[in-house]
Amino acid sequence: MSPLCIIFVILLVLSGIGLIVFILLHSGKGTGINDMIASSVYSSQTGTSIVEKNLDRITIICAVVFLVSVLVLMLIYPQGSIGA
């Protein structure tokens, strides 16, 4: 296994775990872990908070890293080449 492959597999696993965690942190209809942790930062006028915006950004970054890792691994190891 090449060092490039190991790096992208590690990125894939870490971004996958990050996606699970950050998606679970998103609140649905105003109740969630995010509301309990950062309720003091919320802005009542806009309806969204700084924490929600940052959580969205982190989730999108994790999703992009996950997608890029999958695509690179698909190019490095085409279908059926790992077992050979």
In summary, what is this structure?
This protein is mostly helical and 84 residues long.
SSE inventory with pairings:
Layout: H1 3-25, H2 33-37, H3 50-76
What would your notes on this structure say?
With 84 residues, the chain is mainly alpha-helical. Helix content is 65%, strand content 0%. The protein has three helices and no strands. Helix 1 runs antiparallel to helix 3 (50-76). The longest helix has 27 residues, at 50-76. The protein is elongated. The model has no long low-confidence stretch (mean pLDDT 80).
Largest sheet: none
Radius of gyration: 18 Å
Question: Unreliable runs, pLDDT <50, ≥5 residues?
Answer: none
Number of strands: 0
Question: How far is the first residue's CA from the last residue's CA?
Answer: 13 Å
Mean pLDDT, all residues: 80
List the secondary-structure elements in sequence, H or E.
HHH
What best-fitting shape do the alpha-carbon axes yield?
Answer: elongated
The secondary-structure class comes to mainly alpha
* % residues in beta strands: under 5%
Helix content: 55-70%
Count of discrete alpha- or pi-helical segments spanning 4 or more residues = 3
